[in-house]
Amino acid sequence: MDITLLVIGGIIVVVALFLWVTYNALVKLKIRVDEAWSDITVQLKRRADLIPNLVNTVKGYAKHEKGVFEEVTKARTEVMNAQSPKDAAKADNMLEEALKSIFAVAEAYPDLKASQNFSELQAELVDTEDKIQAARRFYNGGVRDLNTKIQLFPNNLFAGMLGFKEREFFDVEESERKTVNKPVDVDFNK
Questions:
Q1: Rounded distance between C-alpha atoms, residue 190 and residue 188, angstroms
Q2: Taking the chain, what is the end-to-end CA distance rounded to the nearest angstrom?
Q3: Mean of the pLDDT values across residues 179-185?
Q4: Which of 3, 25, 127, 189 is least surrounded by CB atoms within 10 angstroms?
Q5: Count of alpha carbons within 13 Å of 18, Cβ hemisphere only?
Q6: How much is the average pLDDT of 147-154?
Q7: HSE, side-chain direction, 13 A CA sphere, residue 11
Q8: Closest to 101 (Cα-Cα) out of 132, 75, 131
């Protein structure tokens, strides 16, 4: 009888310790993912704050390019309103395409390209894009670690009961994946 109670007590202690360690590990990973998501939103906001300055600088040189400016403004609004990683990734892809249009317009105006204000804004955007990419990698690494921990046995038996759910990766949209995986076309004869 005493041995049975000791064995049952030992099993209860081991299960309790396992739950305690698992819960704390999941909490740490969840906080890391939340922090990484916050970093992404900060960088997306930083870029969104730079865009009106860029648009106004380009507008001064290219007043008849109204459609381009409207697309950039619409894309910027979508980024600012995105709530989930999937929404943010979709809006971010839309904004990147719109920014390509702005820089294409700039190519047609040599005075604009030579403008110090435009050059500074362009450099600031490049720096911000680098920071967004780093924040994405950090976020996706945290999501990978959290999702792996949740899916591993025996954690998968308890993670849901403890309130932990898998997170979405900040990923390229399927339509964008085709252009990302497409080889770069280099032609020196143009």
A1: 6
A2: 89
A3: 45
A4: 189
A5: 13
A6: 92
A7: 5
A8: 75
